[in-house]
Amino acid sequence: MSEKDAIDAGKVTFELVSPERILISEAVEMVVIPGTEGDFGVLPGHSPLISAIRPGTIRVYQDGVVTETIFIASGFAEVTPTRCTVLADNAITATGLDSAAVAEELALATVSYEAAKGSDDIDTVMALDKALQIATAKQEAIDAR
After folding, report:
1. Mean of pLDDT values over 101-105
2. How far apart are CA 90 and CA 111, in angstroms?
3. Which of 49, 50, 57, 145 shows the greatest Cβ crowding within 10 Å of its Cβ?
4. Alpha helices (H) along 1-145
5. Residue 68 binned pLDDT confidence (cut-offs 50, 70, 90)
6. What is the residue-averaged pLDDT of the chain?
7. Extended beta strands in 29-98, E state
8. What's the predicted TM-score (pTM) here?
9. Residue 41: which residues within 8 A CB-CB, separation 6 or more?
């Protein structure tokens, strides 16, 4: 389906691209992206924008329901009236996340961050905070499936 046909059908072309390959390229009703300033939905005719992405879950909608949830650690989204392209550093479907491994990762990240929080080593604290944000977002993606 061409981009013009997609927008005429009430769809927006959504592409999720990792460094290795294109993970998704399809016409969708709506996609919700976890931007750094908050989640934003992309529908056909959306105003152009570029946004950084925070750790969170991308939700793909077809026929008014979420058909796909994808965890994303970080990246950028580019939106035009007919297309939403997400360039992701790391992305995995919510069903592909291992519940036990994520629970362990979250527990370790929480303990590590709490232990370092009062430290003068700002770089370490910031890195541990980012790890905690990623682990929390993975757990939220699992909870949403």
Report:
1. 97
2. 24
3. 57
4. 3-8, 99-116, 122-144
5. very high
6. 93
7. 30-35, 38-42, 49-53, 56-62, 65-72, 75-79, 83-88, 91-93
8. 0.87
9. 30, 31, 32, 33
